[in-house]
């Protein structure tokens, strides 16, 4: 079972992806195998690739067996990444903000040798925060 945010479903499982999926009731559904057999046609299925198809699915008043079929095609669930972050600790919040910001662009250009002058070597690279992850 994979866990993705809605944005990731959109980015990784859209029409043109290897494994198109849509979401029904928070479940990520692989369209591929079933789309050719779908009594309502392949096109309507692909139209929702990468999107939330819950309303469309419900509005067509699918039968119980159609609903069971949906469950067979589940490959994962949608989680909103921001919900996963523990908010119990102020430090964590701060690190998370850094993570979603621009931390990755710290180039380690601290000249150790050559010029010899260590004057302004403010070693900001000690920043442990980069180890923090959103998972
Ligand atoms: C994995 C998801 C889906 C499954 C397993 C599925 C399955 C089925 C099945 C078994 C039927 C035959 C009638 C029934 O038993 O209810 C059906 C009909 C239909 N489905 Fe889906 N469906 C899915 C998603 C969708 C979506 C997203 C749409 C978009 C609108 C859609 C549109 C339709 C339509 C229009 C029909 C009626 C076809 C007709 O009677 O001519 N289905 N579907």
TrEMBL record:
One of its GO terms (molecular function) is heme binding. The keyword DNA-binding does not apply. GO terms for cellular component: membrane. Residues 96-111 have a biased composition (Polar residues). SUPFAM superfamilies: Cytochrome b5-like heme/steroid binding domain. Residues 11-79 form the Cytochrome b5 heme-binding domain. Keywords: Heme, Iron, Metal-binding. Gene3D superfamilies: Cytochrome b5-like heme/steroid binding domain. Residues 123-135 have a biased composition (Basic and acidic residues). Pfam families: Cyt-b5. PANTHER family: CYTOCHROME B5. Belongs to the cytochrome b5 family. This is Cytochrome b5 heme-binding domain-containing protein. The lineage of its organism: Eukaryota, Discoba, Heterolobosea, Tetramitia, Eutetramitia.
């Amino acid at each position: 079972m994979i866990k993705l945010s809605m944005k990731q479903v959109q980015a990784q499982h859209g029409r043109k992806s290897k494994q198109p999926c849509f979401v029904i009731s928070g479940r990520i559904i692989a369209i591929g195998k079933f789309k050719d057999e779908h009594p309502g046609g392949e096109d309507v299925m692909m139209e929702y690739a990468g999107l939330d198809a819950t309303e469309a699915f419900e509005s067509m008043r699918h039968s119980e067996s159609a609903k069971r079929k949906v469950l067979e095609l589940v490959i994962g669930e949608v989680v909103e990444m921001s919900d996963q972050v523990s908010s119990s600790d102020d430090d964590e919040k701060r690190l998370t903000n850094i993570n979603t910001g621009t931390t990755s662009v710290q180039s380690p250009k601290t000249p150790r040798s050559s010029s010899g002058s260590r004057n302004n070597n403010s070693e900001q690279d000690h920043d442990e925060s980069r180890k923090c992850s959103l998972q």
